[in-house]
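Provenance and format

Records in this collection were gathered into a single text stream. Each protein contributes a sequence line and a token line. The two records reproduced below are adjacent in the stream.
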Amino acid sequence: MRVAHPAEANDIQALLWSGFAKLVEGVFLLLRIRDQGAARAWLRHASVTTIADLDGYQQTALQIAISANGLRNLAVAADIIELFAPEFLSGMAGDEARCRRTGRRRCKRARQLALGRKWRR
């Protein structure tokens, strides 16, 4: 059955429309931007799965999430970044109550990451 998609279907990541229930595995990578030009080039050419791709069966899917600091590291204009919600801008370690709700270890790890420190498993 063909589903009607919004006009911007090529610009919306498919995860907002589908939970990819038929895909039985997932991998999450946390990456740090060290080379702004290389990161921007990779993102420009990444084959992100969009809503428009959902008409057929997906064997794989690529979805991308970028933190506020990631947007800054990619040189997104500050006036654009400021349009995001305060919770997004402050991040997981930016609010003590939110950090506490995620658990003490995660809170410490999130603060270390926010400060740019390396941490060990």
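Adjacent record:
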Amino acid sequence: MYGISMISRAICVLRSSSEQVSSLHTQYAMLCLHARCLQHSLAVIDHPITSVLNGTNPIEICTYNYYRGMIYMGLERYADAIECYRRVLSQPTAIAHQVHIDAYQRISLLNLIVYGETFNAKLAGVGTVVCRYIEMEENRRVQQEGLQSMQDGTWMEEVGAAGGALFENPNKWHGDLMSAWETNSPTKMEEAIAANLDALQSEQTLGMA
């Protein structure tokens, strides 16, 4: 609590207006999170950002917005949290940092809770570099899920269910065609089709033969 009070006073002394931010804001928001002083932190974090103090690194502003989003989440101000995470993702950057990944994960969840839809990075104005990284992460996740389904055998259940639906009620022509196919004889195959022509046409499965 003492550290929070000291940084709060330092912020008031150094800033030229309540809307100017610096690296001190990042430290302030982080300490408020650790101390769970969420409501008290609003005296500083609730102000919009219109200017940055000279010497402040861009990643510090990015991290500050991320911490603001976490505080708003704790206060159940989800719309404000979404906006803070969107600012993290839309801030220009040359590379994707861990803070971008964490912000994307949180905004994806919040967007579903608040708006009932998935988060669209491109429509939200997310930077090109971060967008590209998000796409790579999504592709990697899909690949991992596919590998996992192969390892635990769930893909066999899915294929088996599909196959079972096709042959749930086996008919005589199934066996005749399979037997003819196993002989590897075109003549036998033609004879089997001719013998079961009526059944194939009635079930509209002649194309399968």
